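[step 3/7] fold_predict: job queued, chain A
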Amino acid sequence: MRKATRILLTLGVSAALLSTSAIPASAAEDGSSATIEVQGGILGINVVQALESTELKPGTPATFAVPGVAVADDRAVLGSWSVSVSLSDFKTEVAGAKPIPAAGATYSAAEESLTHTGTIESLVSAPVTLAGDSESTRAEDAVLASGVRGNNTAEWNATLSVPVPDDALAGTYKATLTHSVL
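[step 4/7] structure written:
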């Protein structure tokens, strides 16, 4: 019986030594957390150049190049944006002259000129016929970006064509072409 006790005692001490050596030493931690805050900006549009004036005869459409229309989207979001255009009537100081109506004018962003940076899954343009009148103008969507992710930019060239009535009088007529982005 003495032998059995010694063996059990020896096994018990050995197991105790093994179990204490198998426990990992506890490590001290002193961590610092790091945070990144991505801030969103604004969505804006800019037309780089003023439209060149054009000379023509009554009954001939006036055609304007609209170069370098640029959208900057710094909102850092998932989403989309669209650009709409509107045109006021062309007014003059010429006595007895009627305004040249914006109604029937067309705006076309040249598909082959559409370029972008950043993530935009789809950037498309559609020619629009403007429905302005002497009281107000209505904006029409001309360019649409979808599948937008994070910051991005887009740029294009467009053409504005305005029908000039046969009864337009000689003189200088002025209007405002407005681009809006939402």
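[step 5/7] annotate
The chain has one helix and seven strands.
The longest helix spans residues 2-22.
exit 0
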